[in-house]
Amino acid sequence: MARIGRIERETKETKIALVLNIDGEGKSEISTGIPFLDHMLTLFSKHGLFDLELKAGGDLDVDIHHTNEDIGLCLGDALSEALNNKEGIKRFGSSFVPMDEALTRVAVDISGRASFYLDSEKIEFPAPLEKDKYDGPNLKHFLQSFAQRGGLNLHISILKGEDFHHISESIFKGLGKALDEATRIDPRTKGIPSTKGTL
């Protein structure tokens, strides 16, 4: 059976429609009103081999905060829905991805116990130049929202990097590759991959 999550969310701040096929080919149609996030999610889809359809609107006249956060929440909800009871999945995935001078490590456990850690002590994220500029805090908030709703134990380490764009590309490509590995069905795994019997 196809593993697809379909999410629609509408609040006074945002309206989002999202379809995620985790057994896809890396195709994407993405329009969020935040061009930088569109670019990052296209990379996530391509390198994770996920098919992603996403249309979002929000109160971008205020700033990008609400739209950015709610997209992260919806993407996590879609992943959780697509995985259903998580039977047969590999559960764990990791990747190192270089992008020019940047290098990041992403490790994920689809544990059902949401937690997020971003090790960026060596990197000083640039301050936003204007209210709708994508920056380090927005990146962190998106990833945290995604991990929260996806039930992910997500660790990201920025090992090297000077350019925010390159660092972000490395993270989103790595996230796609790590999740591609973690969501794969392992024919050797019988039932739920946990000694508890549930995830």
Keywords:
Ribosomal Protein S5, domain 2; 8 strands; 4-stranded mixed sheet; alpha/beta; 4 helices; globular; 199 residues
Secondary structure elements and pairings:
Layout lengths: L3 E7 L3 E8 L6 E4 L3 H14 L2 E8 L6 H19 L8 E8 L2 E8 L5 E5 L16 H15 L2 E8 L3 H20 L16
Parallel strand pairs: 3-4, 7-8
Antiparallel strand pairs: 1-2, 2-4, 5-6, 6-8
Give a description of the structure.
With 199 residues, this protein is α/β, with parallel strands linked by helices. It has one domain (4-183): Ribosomal Protein S5, domain 2 (2-Layer Sandwich), CATH 3.30.230. The chain contains four helices and eight strands. It has helices spanning 35-48, 65-83, 136-150, 164-183, and strands spanning 4-10, 14-21, 28-31, 51-58, 92-99, 102-109, 115-119, 153-160. Helix 1 (35-48) packs parallel to helix 4 (164-183) and helix 2 (65-83) packs parallel to helix 3. The radius of gyration is 16 Å and the shape is globular. 40% of the residues are buried. The model has no long low-confidence stretch (mean pLDDT 93).
By DSSP, the count of extended strands is: 8
CATH architecture: 2-Layer Sandwich
Would you identify the regions where 5 or more consecutive residues have pLDDT less than 50? none
Give the number of helices: 4
> How many domains?
1
Strand content: 25-35%
Query: What is the percent of helical residues?
Result: 25-40%
CATH topology: Ribosomal Protein S5, domain 2
Structural class: alpha/beta
Strand-and-helix sequence, N→C? EEEHEHEEEHEH
Q: In the CATH hierarchy, what is the superfamily?
A: Imidazole glycerol phosphate dehydratase, domain 1
What global shape is seen?
Answer: globular
Classify the oligomer.
single chain
Mean pLDDT: 93
